[in-house]
Write a structure and sequence with these properties.
Blueprint (H helix, E strand, L loop, with lengths): L12 E5 L26 H9 L6 E5 L7 H6 L2 E5 L5 H13 L3 E5 L1 H5 L9 E4 L12 H5 L3 E3 L12 E5 L11
Parallel strand pairs: 1-2, 1-3, 3-4, 4-5, 5-7
Antiparallel strand pairs: 6-7
């Protein structure tokens, strides 16, 4: 399902999936047995986000298990989106540093940030939780057009919190937010 909104402005979106740290759990020891295989799991979360973005927005997708994002990729983008797990935390923060060096807005979602948002203070936006989309046609038009995200906070001093934290709230089929 594509985003139903037709934005007036185009945004160039760079989706970067961080490389896994070689470990037994990533099966990196077995890649040489399988020819050209360089990663064991497709980055489904970022692929879903890329597919949901407005059709008019150009998207580049880079899996750093295959090849690292280049400076030219960061220069091209308006925003850099990242997702990953705890084992990828150093690589996630490295991507944020490269994006910030290029002066780009950064967005992080996924399992690691949902479990430990305090690990990622350099990101501009953190998406905490799952992407929730209610069934098509089940919401009044005014609810569908409005943002269904609620700001929340993390247990740390406000002075240390440089990121805007968003948490998706589940919605009922009538469009009300589950509390």
């Amino acid at each position: 399902m594509r985003c139903p909104l037709s934005p007036a402005n185009e945004r160039r979106v760079l989706c970067v999936f961080p490389a896994y740290t070689p470990s037994f759990g990533t099966f990196s020891h077995a890649f040489r047995l399988m020819g050209r295989v360089r990663a064991f799991m497709p980055p489904q979360g970022l692929l879903l986000i890329a597919a949901y973005l407005p059709a008019s927005w150009p998207v580049r997708f880079i899996d750093e298990n295959v090849a690292p994002a280049k400076a030219a990729d960061f220069a091209w983008a308006d925003v850099v989106m990242v997702s990953g797990m705890h084992i990828q935390a150093p690589q996630i923060n490295d991507i944020a540093a490269r994006a910030k060096t290029a002066g780009k807005v950064t967005v992080l979602g996924g399992a690691s940030v949902s479990g430990a948002p305090e690990l990622y203070p350099e990101f501009d936006y953190l998406h905490i939780g799952e992407m929730v989309t209610p069934p098509t046609g089940s919401l009044p038009a005014s609810t569908t057009a409005s943002r269904r995200l609620r700001r929340s906070s993390v247990s740390r001093p406000a002075s240390a919190c440089r990121s805007a934290i968003f948490r998706c709230r589940p919605m009922t089929s009538s469009g009300s937010i589950v509390t």
